[in-house]
Amino acid sequence: MFTVGAVALNPGEATPARPSGNTRATGPAPGSIEALQARVTRLPKDPGGWAALGMAYVQQGRTTADPATYARAEKALRTSLTVQGKDNADAEIATGALAAARHDFPAALDWALRATTSDPYSASAQGVLADAYTQLGRYAEADAAVQKMTDLRPDAASLARASYAFELKGDTAEARDLMRRSLTAAATPGESAFAHAVLASLALQDGDTRGALTEAQTGLRAAPGDSALLEARARVHEALGDTAQAVADYQAAIAIAPLPHYLLGLGELEQSLGHRGQAEAQYAVLRAQDRIRETTGTTADTDAILFEGDHGSPERAVTLAEEALRARPFVAVHDAYAWALHRAGRDTEALAQADQALSLGTRSALYHYHRAAIQHALGHPDAARRDLNQALRQPGFHPLHADAARALLQRIDTTP
To answer: Three-state SS string across 21-47, please?
Structure first.
């Protein structure tokens, strides 16, 4: 599918412009937000400086889940585009990345196409284009953009996207190989941490819990404060039955970045342990985040939909999923919609969405469990058994649903 040469950016990241001038050892680190702020203060008519600052804010927002950071990014990028309205590829790339971070993928696509017109040789522009096409369910076009990105610059970022393309199609062996090449090509600690986190996740998908733990531990030795690695290790410890360490890792990840999937993971783990008060504390933060999301007009992510389906109103989960699917017809949204429909008692509709979620061959234990529950509700035990066996290839794939999957499989196998 992809032809890539020897292989440095994380998916969705554009290359920030380097600050000009000398920076003293006691001053802000080159490329930091502080340094970029100083640059635009000194050079307010520099479009590249404003674009780099905007992208830095986008990256910060992704790790902090703070909508105010995205507002600062938008202001910086608008300034860049005001200073230079045409052929400003850096600002167009960053604005596309901002739209993607806000889950406005039609806008992300529009900005990415502008960027590829302004600079047809920009690998970063092709990366944002690939991300937008992927989330819009236009997978063949996404593959073409990834191929062009690797042709232009076969680095850690392009190899990471190629890895994800294979992961979506269920080819975890090729996905691992490409991600290891991305790790080899990594030029920054962040790129290395990202690669180790993905490799841990891929190992878990294949049921290799010890291999997953090795990847997470290796990454954390170099980047002990990386929240994604902490969350990855939490899931590994959960799969290994070390729930105390899993809770500690989730708590450490949330202290760094209270991202919704961290909060949901910890809340459901605490619930599975009978710690209802601790679980509700995480769920309260999730509800507060969702209220903030509503005020910004942003469509719900899959975590919010699944949370509402399992811990709130299934009918509201259906509404959230329908809104999300209109803007983002991606496999993960089809899965969340399927589960919301199932929880609302609409299993015939749910099955069509569950089939869509697995149409690429994605090896997601959760997707398979969701479809198994739907198949069982529709009176299809053999189909449910197949999906349950697939789901249970990944030990402890979910703090609540893994036990439910084992119980359902036993019920099917013992029913005459």
So the answer is: CCCCCCCCCCCCHHHHHHHHHHCCCCH
Which run of H or of E encompasses 213?
helix 209-222
Q: Domain residues of the chain, as ranges?
A: 1-17+31-166, 308-416
What is the assigned CATH class of domain 308-416? Answer: mainly alpha
pLDDT at 221: 97
> What's the CATH superfamily of 1-17+31-166?
Tetratricopeptide repeat domain (1.25.40.10)
Tokens encoding 315: 């009918």
Classify residue 137 by its DSSP letter.
T
pLDDT class for 67, splitting at 50, 70, 90? confident
Query: Tens digits of per-residue pLDDT, 355-374?
Result: 999 999 999 999 999 999 99
Same fold for the pair 1-17+31-166 and 308-416 = yes
Termini Cα distance of the chain? 46
Handedness of CA 372, 376, 378, 383 (dihedral sign): positive
Nearest to 74 by CA among 55, 88, 48, 59: 55
Calpha distance 91→174 (Å, rounded): 34
Angle at 149 (CA atoms; ends 153, 56), nearest 5 degrees: 80
What pTM was computed for the model? Answer: 0.91
Question: Which one-letter DSSP state was computed for residue 378?
Answer: T
Q: What is the pLDDT of residues 113-164, one digit of tens each?
A: 999 999 999 999 999 999 999 999 999 999 999 999 999 999 999 999 999 9
**Residue 25 · residue 173 · CB < 8 Å:** no
Report the residue count for the chain.
416
